[in-house]
Each structure stands twice: as structure tokens, then as C-alpha cells.
Amino acid sequence: MESATAVLFPGESEGYVQSLETYPLKEIGSARWFRQHEYIEKLNMQAILNATASQDEFVKEHLISYSKIPTLIYEVISVEIWKHKVFPILCQLQDFNPKSTFPIYMVIHHEATIINLLETVLFHKESCEAAEEAVLDLLDYCLRKVTCLAAQTVTGETPTQDKLTQSDHSDTATLQDLQEQSTALEFDVSLKALSILRYITDHIDSLTLSTLTRMLNTHNLPCVLVQLVEHCPWSRRTKGQLEKYMDGKWYQVPKVDQLKMTKLDGQVWICLLNLLLRPECQQKYDFNDFNKGQLLKLRGFLTEVLIDQLPNLGELQRFLSHLSVTDPAPPKRDLILEQIPEIMDNILKENSSKWKAIAKYQVKQAFDPCDEDLQQHARRLAQTYNLDVMESLIPEKPKCGFCGSEASKRCSRCQGEWYCCRECQVKHWQKHKKACELMAETVSKLQGDLKIEA
Fold first, then answer.
1. What is the Cβ-side half-sphere exposure of residue 45, based on CA atoms within 13 angstroms?
2. Which of 211, 315, 321 is nearest to 272 (CA)?
3. What is the C-alpha to C-alpha distance for residues 308 and 302, in angstroms, rounded to an integer?
4. 24, 26, 20: which is closest to 365 by C-alpha?
5. Rounded CA gap, 85 and 374, in Å?
6. 36, 158, 272, 366: which has the fewest Cβ within 10 Å?
7. Which helix (H) or strand (E) holds 383?
8. Average pLDDT, stretch 89-97?
9. pLDDT at 54 over 60
10. Is the dihedral of CA 407, 112, 87, 376 positive or negative?
């Protein structure tokens, strides 16, 4: 790998992975916790670089060798609990007016970083196996995200803005702004969780029987997936124009591409293929009247155009046709000792009735830093997020922020948006103006704090 596009060398990666550890909920936001966040950010970027360039995936190998995938699963669940239990209390504390909300945003973003890293490495069977018993906790986590995503779609609560990154966060953002940003980021995290679910179903043969039981019987994943097919949260219409969510942004879809299957569509259909066509899954799943009725809704979506893009769906179409005229045998009930997920329950029990105390402790110790601490954070972030490396993480050429075509020109002011031509940039300006000014203002302030010449 060329050094210009390397975030970490194999030796550095090994050291970072070896140092990963779980932290008590109270320690979220501490100096040690933030140091680990930076390590995970770098590991995530390097893992993406290796995967997209089809190079030696040494980050994945180190995570497996040192048994750190369960650690990542623990950490992502810990932040999920913090967001639901502690963060709302922080926002309600009347005497909490931090100089900068950036440290809190970093905690919120930490969940997205870990889930992105897990999505990259869990593509491989050996990574799923290395999760060991924690795969049940990861499964439940992903199912919580996907179920909420499906529920929000039914009620029309799908986020309307693009994915936010660290560079989009203003140093002057209020706690209310943080709550809105957390909601927007939750949408992208849920889509990553959907991809991880697909990888788990790919490797179900090598996982425990309890994993399959929880997917089919405890959580009824097939019916949740039917809701995603039916309501498609990554697709919407704005002023009569079809838009689809891809690579963290909403893009207008030309008429010629409106029937084209997106990556997210494919993840859902592959999950359904894995769960409904395998004999062991058919024996375990309860095809009662409700479940059967939900699954048969899929027939209306299995058009010739769709099957041409994913030919295996023809087999699913035949299965559903057979299901419509038969009554499958009752599910096979084996007498087994079922494993259950423990991470979330243990964290909740350990911190029960302590949420307000944790929030007040973190206000004093972590989330109201002095100017010197903020400048130190900024310097370390500047080292972590190198623009040349960030660009090399993009698997395809950038897309135009207005029309979605391949782009070659970048906004000269904020450096964050791409366009295919001047005409598209002018048309997009009213929508981009606020974000552009905010990003340029934030960069200017950061440079001033660090005494860096623009």
C-alpha cells in the first residue's frame, strides 16, 4: 500500500487493536475513552481502504486474532444505551451550558464509527464466527435498529437530511441541535445495521442454533423485512421527483434508473432469500396465517425487471407461489438450551437508577472542557482526518450534489460538496448555502484556534 493513502501500517494496527477495551458507562467521554475513539476511527478508515482496494485486510485479521470483535459489540451497545438513558438527561440539565458541544457529538458519532467498522469486517465468515456469543447481542442490536427504521417509515418519520459527519458539526451547536443531529445519524446507523444482518444470514450455517431461533421466532425478522420492502425507507418523493439514499446522501434518480435496484434493496432481498429458502430455516419458521399473509405481499414486488437484476429471486417467487396454495408443516420444536444475549442486560443492571448521577459526573469530568483541552482535541482530530486519506476511502468517484452524476468539481469554499458542472452548482446553491457557510465558518474558527494559516 502506498504511504500516501495509508492511515495505519500493520504494526500500528496491531497495537491499536490489542489496546481496545470495554469501558464502564460512566467513563464514556473521558480522556482514555476519547483516545480509544481515535484508534477506532483510524482502524475503521484503514479497514475500508483495505477492503475497497482488495488488499491484505490486516485490521480484520488483528480483530480476529486478539478476539476484539466482542469488545466492539460491547462498545456500540454501551453508546446506544448512553444515547437513550444519559444523553436526554444531559439535554435537560438547566445549569449545563458547555462552551462547545463537540465532545458530546463525538460520543454520538462513536456508534456510527463502530457500526461502520463492523459492517466492513463482518462481510467475512471468520469475523462472524469470531464474534462468538456476542453475535446474539449484535443480532438484537441490529434488529432494534431495523425494527425502529421500519416503524418510522410506516409513520412517515424518515429523516429528510443527508448524513452528518464531524465536519458538518458546528462548534456553536446547541444541545437541541445535537438531538436533531443524533436523529439524522440514527438513520444511517440503521442502514448499516441492515447490512450486518444480511452478513449474519449469509453465515448462519456457522453460527449457533440460538442465532437462527432468535431471528425467526423471537424477532420474526422475515416480517420486519417485508415492511422494509413495502415502505422502502431509503426512497422518497420530493415535489414529484424520486430520490434515493445512497452513500450518506439523498440523490434525485433519473427516470431511466428508477427501477434499478440499489445496494440497500439488494441487502433486504438477499436476507429474505437466506431466511426463507434454506431447509433448516423453513423447518424452524412458523408459517401461521399472519406470517404467511405478510410474506405473500412480496409477490407484488417480484417483477420481471427486479428478477433480471437478481436472478435468485426467481426461486423465491416460486417458493411464494407454492406457499400460497399449501399449508407448511408446523415448526420443528427442538428441546435445546437456548443462549441469550447478556451485554445490554448487564449494562442496564449495573447502571440502573444511576443515570442522572452519571450525567452530572460526565458534565463535570468530560463534557465541559477548557479552551486548552478543546484545542488539543482539535489537533488530534486534524491528524486523524487527513483529506487525502478521506478521499481515498470513496470507493467510486464523487457524485454531483444536485443531479447525482459523476462529479469532478468541488465547492471551493467548503471543500465538502461535489458537482458535475457549474450549472448544477448554481441550481443547488440555495440548498447548499447554509451548510457551506457553516462548514467554512467552523474551519475558519478551528484554524484560528490552532493558529494555522488558511
1. 21
2. 315
3. 10
4. 26
5. 26
6. 158
7. helix 371-384
8. 82
9. yes
10. negative
Which amino acid is present at 150? A
3-state percent helix, strand, coil for the chain, nearest multiple of 5: 65, 5, 30
Amino acid, single-letter form, for residue 238: T
Quickly tell me which residue has 454520538 as its cell.
108
C-alpha cell at 173: 451547536
What does the pLDDT look like over 400-421, one tens digit per residue?
A: 888 878 887 878 877 778 888 8
Core vs surface per residue 195-214: b (16+ CB within 10 A) or e:
bbbbbbbbbbeebbebbbbb
- Count of CB atoms within 10 A of residue 383's CB? 10
pLDDT digits (tens, 9 = 90+) for 169-207: 444 457 777 778 888 889 999 999 999 999 999 999 888
Contact 166, 105 (CB under 8 A): yes
The 8-class DSSP code of residue 159 comes to: -
- Amino acid identity of residue 370, one-letter, is C
Of 63, 65, 37, 69, the closest CA to residue 50 belongs to: 63
Radius of gyration over every alpha carbon of the chain, rounded to an integer in angstroms: 23
- Compute the Cα dihedral for 273, 279, 284, 285 and give only its sign: positive
**157: Cβ contacts below 8 Å, ≥ 6 apart:** none
Per residue in 268-301, pLDDT tens?
Answer: 999 999 999 999 899 999 999 999 999 999 999 9
